[in-house]
Amino acid sequence: MIREDERKKLAEQERLISTRLRKEVAIQQQKLLKEKQAIDAERAKLAKQIEAVKQDAEKKRRKEIADIRQILQKDRDAALLKKEAEHARERASMEKKIADLSRRVSKAGGDVGEGAELDLFEELRGAFPDDQISRVKSQPGIIVHDIRYKGRSSGKIVIDATPRAAWKQAPAVKLRQVQTELETDYAILATPAFPAGKRELFIESGVIVIAPARVRPMIEVLRKALVAMHVAKLSDAERADKLNRLFRFITSAGFKRKLAEASDLAGEALEIDVQEKRAHDTVWKKRGTVLTRIKHVLRDLDTEVSAIVEAREEGEPVSLAAYRVTSKS
Hints:
Distance between the termini: 76 Å
Largest sheet: 6 strands, mixed
Number of domains: 2
Number of strands: 8
Structural class: alpha/beta
Number of helices: 7
Shape: elongated
């Protein structure tokens, strides 16, 4: 009997404990459910505030871009006006120099050729990068153009680019002597000052006298011929004959006309390239400025979003800090 009573008491205690445990579990589950609901609500609230921040940032970004466009437009207009003013000053200065040169040459009874402002040494180096172009040490105005084909010399041209304000025959005679000493195929005297009745191109003492603006096209013609003769492996007699025939051709009226036309067209093409580069520079500068401002706007956006996500009230558990959004006054 005693054991039976004890078993009943034990069973009753077990039932009570089980009932109490189920109640406690139900209470804990209810509590956890409420906490989950609260967290979900905080998440939804946070999502709404983040969306609101994004929308606000988008509005700011659009306003920033509109402001940037307006600023860039003003800057572009100001830059264009500045460039036009600089170009006008440069053109006026150049026209003044040319006019002065024309007066000085006219007093001497001569004519003026184009290209007095050109730096022929740098121009030829840029136009013919595979050739060897150098100055004569004792005479900086004398340029030696060694035409190269597959690493070997195909011919040489000596050019006198010394600036001169008036025509004199002596430089042509001296250049002919230099040509003989250096054993070059041709000699070119580049000068903007011509004797009366001569203009752009003529022969003096066996030297090609030509306006600076025509030197590069002339070099291109002579270079092509010299390379062709080099490739053909002509004998000395054949080469001399070809050089003389080419020399006579370049002094003809037809060659002068075509050379002037080619030079003028090259100048027009170069001006087009200059205008295109100016336009590209403006576009690249504007694009860089806009991209930099956009980067700053996005950085501000990231900062504001991070401030919301990482905000935590004092005393709040770390596990819930990411879901708590503090109200803004």
